[in-house]
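Journal club side-thread
Mid-discussion, someone asked how the predicted structure for our own chain would compare to the paper's figures. Pasting it here so we can look after the session.
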Amino acid sequence: MAYVSAALVLVGLVAAVNLLLTFGIVRRLREQTAELAALRAGGGAPVMPDNDVAYPAGTPLDQFITTDVDGVAVSSTTLGSRPLVGFFSPHCLPCKEQLPAFVEHARTRPGGRDGVLAVVVGTAEETAEVVRQLRAVARVVTEPDQGQVQRAFGVTGFPGFILVEDGVVAASNFLLGAVAEHDTAAQPAAG
Protein backbone atom coordinates (compact mmCIF):
# COMPACT_ATOMS: atom_id res chain seq x y z
CA MET A 1 0.00 0.00 0.00
CA ALA A 2 2.88 2.37 0.73
CA TYR A 3 4.22 1.86 -2.79
CA VAL A 4 0.89 2.81 -4.33
CA SER A 5 0.69 5.98 -2.22
CA ALA A 6 4.25 6.95 -3.12
CA ALA A 7 3.56 6.31 -6.82
CA LEU A 8 0.44 8.47 -6.72
CA VAL A 9 2.31 11.32 -5.02
CA LEU A 10 5.10 11.08 -7.63
CA VAL A 11 2.62 11.08 -10.55
CA GLY A 12 0.86 14.07 -8.99
CA LEU A 13 4.12 16.02 -8.69
CA VAL A 14 5.11 15.23 -12.28
CA ALA A 15 1.65 16.33 -13.47
CA ALA A 16 1.93 19.60 -11.51
CA VAL A 17 5.37 20.37 -13.00
CA ASN A 18 4.07 19.53 -16.47
CA LEU A 19 1.12 21.88 -15.97
CA LEU A 20 3.42 24.74 -14.89
CA LEU A 21 5.66 24.23 -17.94
CA THR A 22 2.63 24.16 -20.22
CA PHE A 23 1.38 27.49 -18.82
CA GLY A 24 4.84 29.01 -19.40
CA ILE A 25 4.93 27.81 -22.99
CA VAL A 26 1.44 29.12 -23.71
CA ARG A 27 2.35 32.53 -22.25
CA ARG A 28 5.49 32.75 -24.40
CA LEU A 29 3.59 31.72 -27.54
CA ARG A 30 1.06 34.50 -26.89
CA GLU A 31 3.90 37.05 -26.60
CA GLN A 32 5.50 35.84 -29.84
CA THR A 33 2.16 35.89 -31.65
CA ALA A 34 1.61 39.51 -30.59
CA GLU A 35 5.12 40.50 -31.76
CA LEU A 36 4.64 38.74 -35.11
CA ALA A 37 1.24 40.39 -35.61
CA ALA A 38 2.79 43.81 -34.98
CA LEU A 39 5.51 43.15 -37.56
CA ARG A 40 3.07 41.88 -40.18
CA ALA A 41 0.72 44.81 -39.63
CA GLY A 42 3.55 47.19 -40.47
CA GLY A 43 3.08 49.05 -37.20
CA GLY A 44 6.54 49.01 -35.71
CA ALA A 45 7.94 46.12 -33.87
CA PRO A 46 8.17 46.13 -30.13
CA VAL A 47 10.94 48.45 -29.01
CA MET A 48 13.81 46.33 -27.81
CA PRO A 49 17.34 47.45 -27.05
CA ASP A 50 18.81 44.90 -29.43
CA ASN A 51 16.51 45.38 -32.44
CA ASP A 52 19.36 46.46 -34.71
CA VAL A 53 19.96 44.10 -37.60
CA ALA A 54 23.18 45.85 -38.55
CA TYR A 55 25.72 48.21 -37.08
CA PRO A 56 23.98 51.10 -35.28
CA ALA A 57 24.24 54.74 -36.33
CA GLY A 58 27.68 56.20 -35.78
CA THR A 59 29.59 53.00 -36.58
CA PRO A 60 32.31 53.33 -39.25
CA LEU A 61 31.71 51.05 -42.24
CA ASP A 62 34.10 48.13 -42.62
CA GLN A 63 35.91 47.78 -45.95
CA PHE A 64 34.79 45.22 -48.55
CA ILE A 65 35.36 44.42 -52.22
CA THR A 66 33.06 42.18 -54.26
CA THR A 67 31.46 41.90 -57.69
CA ASP A 68 27.85 42.68 -58.54
CA VAL A 69 25.61 40.49 -60.72
CA ASP A 70 26.68 42.50 -63.79
CA GLY A 71 30.35 41.63 -63.17
CA VAL A 72 31.29 45.14 -61.99
CA ALA A 73 33.49 45.60 -58.92
CA VAL A 74 31.73 47.01 -55.87
CA SER A 75 33.52 48.22 -52.77
CA SER A 76 32.90 50.41 -49.79
CA THR A 77 34.64 53.23 -51.67
CA THR A 78 32.72 52.92 -54.98
CA LEU A 79 29.27 53.42 -53.47
CA GLY A 80 29.49 57.18 -53.18
CA SER A 81 29.13 59.33 -50.09
CA ARG A 82 25.46 58.45 -49.23
CA PRO A 83 24.62 54.91 -50.31
CA LEU A 84 21.41 53.19 -49.30
CA VAL A 85 21.96 49.48 -48.73
CA GLY A 86 19.33 46.76 -48.43
CA PHE A 87 19.86 43.15 -47.39
CA PHE A 88 17.32 40.53 -48.49
CA SER A 89 16.81 36.79 -48.28
CA PRO A 90 14.46 35.05 -50.74
CA HIS A 91 13.11 32.88 -47.88
CA CYS A 92 12.18 35.82 -45.64
CA LEU A 93 8.51 36.90 -45.58
CA PRO A 94 9.24 40.42 -44.21
CA CYS A 95 11.82 40.79 -47.02
CA LYS A 96 9.16 39.98 -49.63
CA GLU A 97 6.73 42.39 -47.97
CA GLN A 98 9.21 45.30 -47.90
CA LEU A 99 10.83 44.67 -51.30
CA PRO A 100 8.31 46.74 -53.35
CA ALA A 101 8.72 49.73 -51.02
CA PHE A 102 12.52 49.46 -51.24
CA VAL A 103 12.33 49.34 -55.06
CA GLU A 104 10.05 52.40 -55.11
CA HIS A 105 12.24 54.37 -52.68
CA ALA A 106 15.38 53.47 -54.66
CA ARG A 107 13.67 54.50 -57.92
CA THR A 108 12.92 58.00 -56.59
CA ARG A 109 16.26 58.49 -54.85
CA PRO A 110 18.66 61.07 -56.36
CA GLY A 111 21.79 59.57 -57.87
CA GLY A 112 20.11 56.57 -59.48
CA ARG A 113 21.10 52.96 -59.06
CA ASP A 114 24.78 53.73 -58.41
CA GLY A 115 23.88 55.07 -54.96
CA VAL A 116 21.86 52.00 -53.99
CA LEU A 117 23.26 48.58 -53.14
CA ALA A 118 21.07 45.52 -52.69
CA VAL A 119 22.57 42.35 -51.24
CA VAL A 120 20.58 39.16 -51.80
CA VAL A 121 21.61 36.12 -49.79
CA GLY A 122 21.30 32.66 -51.28
CA THR A 123 22.13 30.56 -54.32
CA ALA A 124 21.68 31.82 -57.89
CA GLU A 125 18.46 29.84 -58.29
CA GLU A 126 17.01 31.09 -54.99
CA THR A 127 17.86 34.75 -55.60
CA ALA A 128 16.92 35.04 -59.30
CA GLU A 129 13.45 36.61 -58.82
CA VAL A 130 14.57 39.09 -56.15
CA VAL A 131 17.60 40.07 -58.26
CA ARG A 132 15.31 40.65 -61.26
CA GLN A 133 13.16 43.07 -59.25
CA LEU A 134 16.13 44.99 -57.83
CA ARG A 135 18.43 45.18 -60.86
CA ALA A 136 16.80 48.24 -62.44
CA VAL A 137 17.10 50.39 -59.31
CA ALA A 138 20.22 49.13 -57.53
CA ARG A 139 23.59 47.52 -57.92
CA VAL A 140 22.90 43.96 -56.83
CA VAL A 141 25.29 41.57 -55.10
CA THR A 142 24.48 37.96 -54.29
CA GLU A 143 26.39 36.11 -51.64
CA PRO A 144 26.05 33.18 -49.23
CA ASP A 145 24.88 33.74 -45.67
CA GLN A 146 27.45 35.68 -43.62
CA GLY A 147 29.24 36.81 -46.79
CA GLN A 148 31.74 39.62 -46.75
CA VAL A 149 29.27 42.44 -47.43
CA GLN A 150 27.01 41.26 -44.59
CA ARG A 151 30.02 41.16 -42.28
CA ALA A 152 31.12 44.65 -43.39
CA PHE A 153 27.75 46.05 -42.31
CA GLY A 154 27.37 43.82 -39.24
CA VAL A 155 24.12 42.32 -40.58
CA THR A 156 22.52 39.82 -38.22
CA GLY A 157 19.03 39.46 -39.73
CA PHE A 158 16.78 40.11 -42.71
CA PRO A 159 15.64 42.40 -44.06
CA GLY A 160 18.22 44.98 -43.14
CA PHE A 161 18.34 48.57 -44.39
CA ILE A 162 21.33 50.83 -43.86
CA LEU A 163 22.03 54.41 -44.87
CA VAL A 164 25.71 55.33 -44.95
CA GLU A 165 26.99 58.91 -44.91
CA ASP A 166 30.69 59.51 -45.55
CA GLY A 167 31.70 55.99 -44.51
CA VAL A 168 29.68 55.96 -41.28
CA VAL A 169 26.34 54.26 -40.65
CA ALA A 170 23.75 57.05 -40.46
CA ALA A 171 20.72 54.80 -39.89
CA SER A 172 19.98 51.08 -39.76
CA ASN A 173 16.81 49.14 -39.12
CA PHE A 174 14.84 46.09 -40.17
CA LEU A 175 12.00 48.41 -41.22
CA LEU A 176 12.59 50.40 -44.40
CA GLY A 177 10.40 53.28 -43.23
CA ALA A 178 12.75 54.29 -40.43
CA VAL A 179 15.77 54.40 -42.74
CA ALA A 180 13.83 55.95 -45.66
CA GLU A 181 12.63 58.82 -43.43
CA HIS A 182 16.21 59.58 -42.44
CA ASP A 183 17.30 59.31 -46.09
CA THR A 184 14.55 61.61 -47.36
CA ALA A 185 15.17 64.17 -44.63
CA ALA A 186 18.89 64.28 -45.44
CA GLN A 187 18.47 64.48 -49.24
CA PRO A 188 17.89 68.25 -49.55
CA ALA A 189 20.98 68.90 -47.42
CA ALA A 190 23.02 66.47 -49.52
CA GLY A 191 21.56 67.51 -52.87
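Post-session note: The two ends are 88 Å apart (CA to CA).
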